[in-house]
Amino acid sequence: MFYTSIRTLTLACLFSSVIGIATQEKRDDGNSGIPTVDDVKNPVCKPWIAIRDAIMGDIYHGRCNDNTRAAIRLAFHDAGTFSLSREAAGQDNGGADGSLLVDPNEVLRDENNGMQTIVSLLKPLPEKFNVSAGDVLHLAGTLGVLACPGGPVVKTFVGRGPVKNVNPTNLIPDTHDTIPNIVNRFNDMGISVREAMALIGSHTCARQRFVDPAFANDTFDTTPDIWDIRFYSETKRNDSDPGVFRLPSDLGFAHNSLTQKDYNRFVGSLSTQENWAREYADAHEKLSLLGQDADTLTDCTEIMPEAIHLRDITVTHSGGAVDPAVDPEKLAAALQATRSIWLS
Ligand code: HEM
Asked: Which first-to-last residue range defines the signal peptide (predicted)?
């Protein structure tokens, strides 16, 4: 589908820029790598095309931007308060239920600093489309991953019920905490070290503002708009690139005996990227279901646009190439081919 789209790209670009084809017409052309309502087979999933477009279009503009970064982090902070030990003790629990969109105070906590804008943008959608906050929040997370070129399709489910309770405090790992404590916290979520090391790679498209405000907007790798594995290699080497910030916890993961073996699995070449993308997608799916009964939900992954594979936008296709650079022309072509209706 991707190559077909590339073949038709030149003509499509020419027409759209000359006569300004309307969004709906472009969506129906069948070549955009973007499923339409007619393409979607499960009737439960059809209404989700409009919600997908509201997020991918109005909020992300089809790109990896500050709203997509914040939405991915939001998905973690919503789900990551899940606790097996609290559940076993019958205590209030967190989980992937969208409470961060509903409770007015949660987003004001220090640990959630920086997510106020994305929360205010997503907040109206549950009521507007008559769906749950948890479904909207976690669709925003999986679409956020996909909006960053190189990001995989993460299986996306709908049907979560209303928010269960306000997330308990002190359950989101802090970057200054020790690696054993952070590992324990992930284990208590039900997330293994291997899964946690895959998830932490989402820092490939991240920025910091509050750990050290003197370096506000610094990124965690040199390619913050691309979903690649440079984060792992650059953090491990502790490169000193201008504008790049290292979180103490990320440096710890690269070198601590509890985590370095699983961390190192993602330092490497284009073939390593493929492994990471696959493992990341599985781990993010698990995260998005914490505290939910997956058997009661509906898999609506069929609404998701096509992924842009890193191998298709790098200067080399060789699987052995380590951290290959992205070719800007290939990137622009891939965005047009698979995100055209949302780009602005
Ligand atoms: C040990 C676990 C983690 C720690 C300690 C941690 C810590 C942080 C910190 C301190 C920031 C910068 C916040 C700011 O100052 O603006 C950040 C950003 C971010 N984190 Fe994490 N994180 C962890 C795990 C994760 C996971 C599992 C995900 C997603 C699956 C994630 C996704 C992100 C994203 C996308 C951003 C960028 C947000 C933005 O640019 O607005 N993090 N993280």
From this structure: 1-20
